Amino acid sequence: MAGAALLYFEDLEPGQVFVLGSRTVSKEEIIAFATDFDPQPFHLDEEAGAKSFLGGLCASGWHTCAMVHRLNCDNFMNKIHSLGAPGLDELRWIRPVFPGDTISGTSKLIDLRPSNSRPDVGLMHIQTDVSNQAGDPVLRMKAWAMIARRPGG
Q1: C-alpha–C-alpha distance, residues 111 and 14, integer Å
Q2: Among candidate residues 131, 95, 145, the one with its CA nearest the CA of residue 21
Q3: Does residue 1 surpass a pLDDT of 60?
Q4: How far apart are CA 121 and CA 98, in angstroms?
Q5: Backbone Cα Rg of the chain
Q6: Tens-place pLDDT, residues 90-119
Q7: Distinct helix (H) and strand (E) counts, the chain
């Protein structure tokens, strides 16, 4: 991305899709995240995970969100004039993410509109869909983001 100009709100179009790349998660990462942020037994211990309805040690849904956010930043949000986000409309953890799973996905722009209260800001509605290496969906998220409008535009 070095040297490439960041995109403004006016450069984006509904229907545009950004490919997010992939990330493989390790057992150690799962346990480390869970230790700090979601210390439920099925995220911390293989035996407890195996005894749970999840069927094995798995990443916290919040860990999955954090990994997806990193993919979004690396492959999409850091390529535009992002101003942050007011929140999510939908978040679904469809399947667990297990050690060794590789997640990948896309973010699709489903709506763009100028802000009613801030003329220098545009609002972008994004749907992010993420699957594991087998193509099984693991997460769906719909969120709004604030994007800078082109100065003098």
Answers
A1: 5
A2: 131
A3: no
A4: 39
A5: 17
A6: 999 999 999 999 999 999 999 999 999 999
A7: 4, 5
If phi > 0 it is left, if psi is from -120 to 50 it is alpha, else beta; for residue 120 that is: alpha
- Which distant-in-sequence residues (6+ apart) come within 8 Å of 142 by Cβ? 88, 89, 90, 91, 110, 125, 126, 127, 128
Alpha carbons 136 and 4: distance in angstroms, whole number: 34
State the amino acid at position 84 in one-letter form. Answer: G
Write b or e for each residue in 43-53: b if 16 or more Cβ atoms lie within 10 A of its Cβ, otherwise e.
bbeeeebeebe
Task: Retrieve residue 39's tokens.
Answer: 């210390």
Report how far residue 130's alpha carbon sits from residue 108's, in angstroms, rounded to the nearest whole number. Answer: 12
105 with 67: CB under 8 angstroms? no
User: For 59, phi and psi rounded to 5 degrees?
Assistant: -70, 145
Record the tokens describing residue 137, joined without a space.
């969906």
- Asked if the model's pLDDT at residue 128 lies above 80, the reply is yes
Write the pLDDT tens digit of every residue in 3-15.
Answer: 679 999 999 999 9
* Helical (H) or strand (E) element with 124: strand 121-131
**Strand 87-93 and strand 137-148: pairing?**
antiparallel
